[in-house]
Specification:
alpha/beta, Elongation Factor Tu (Ef-tu), domain 3, Rossmann fold, 2 domains, seven-stranded antiparallel sheet, five-stranded parallel sheet
Length: 242
């Protein structure tokens, strides 16, 4: 499958193409599926893995190439393996993963990933996400195991409460927030609670990855109204409402 104009742009930006092979899959909940893959040499070419590392996966939709970014789950550079997790809905990515079988292949491009914690390392994490960003959330929590973390997690289905959160009950507090009013309810919940929890902004780190509009709203609030420096706010819209 060709990658169209997006593939040309990624090539110009030094993106590197790989082919992954499915080795297995498991249904985590009725709305969340995990697929296991060999990496086609990606981790060796990248020099290993870093927290929240992601790749662009290519799917075909209406006869055209279509790419979406997914976080690597449990990457093993020595074995050349990792998993990907998919929040299921309508679309080419969900259609592919629902039927993925051992031996199936999928094309991917490595371009744009990167991660660095601020200095000094944060004593407190404030994490805001949803099922689409759960793999990255788990990766982030594992990267800062000594930090205390408060997580606001937006849910769209009852099954989201059974997702594979990797939490330390002694350090992590999880708030499940039902999705309402296109994300406005999540914004209200965070704005109501965060000021009393934040403490010294220079010791905190905010990581926000929800739909694009919600992410922008919360990132702007943290920087402009709470005085958190841009170096200590990592905000990336993972999807757009339609």
């Amino acid at each position: 499958m060709g990658h169209g104009w997006e593939g040309v742009v990624l090539k110009l930006m030094r993106g590197k193409d790989f082919e992954f092979t499915v080795t297995g899959a498991e249904q985590v909940t009725e709305d969340f599926r995990r697929v296991h893959l060999t990496d086609g040499g990606l981790l060796a070419a990248a020099g290993g893995a870093h927290p929240t590392m992601w790749v662009r996966i290519w799917f075909e939709q209406d006869g055209r190439p279509h790419q979406r970014a997914y976080t690597l789950v449990d990457p093993d550079p020595a074995a050349g393996t990792f998993s990907l997790e998919f929040a299921l809905h309508q679309g080419a990515a969900s259609d592919w993963v629902r039927t993925a079988q051992p031996g199936d292949t999928i094309e991917a491009t490595l371009q744009g990933t990167g991660f660095a914690l601020p200095e000094p390392e944060p004593a407190r994490l404030f994490v805001i996400g949803d099922p689409a960003s759960l793999p990255a959330i788990n990766s982030l929590l594992g990267a800062v195991p000594q930090a205390r973390a408060t997580i606001w997690f937006e849910t769209a289905h009852a099954s989201d409460e059974k997702l594979p959160f990797r939490l330390d009950p002694d350090r992590h507090t999880l708030h499940l927030v039902p999705r309402r009013d296109a994300g406005a309810h999540l914004v209200e919940e965070v704005r109501a609670a965060l000021p009393a929890l934040l403490g010294d902004p220079s010791e905190a780190y905010l990581w926000i990855a929800c739909d694009t509009a919600t992410t922008r709203s919360l990132a702007s609030y943290a920087r402009r109204e709470l005085g958190v420096s841009k170096e200590r706010v990592n905000a990336l819209g993972y999807w757009r409402t339609t």
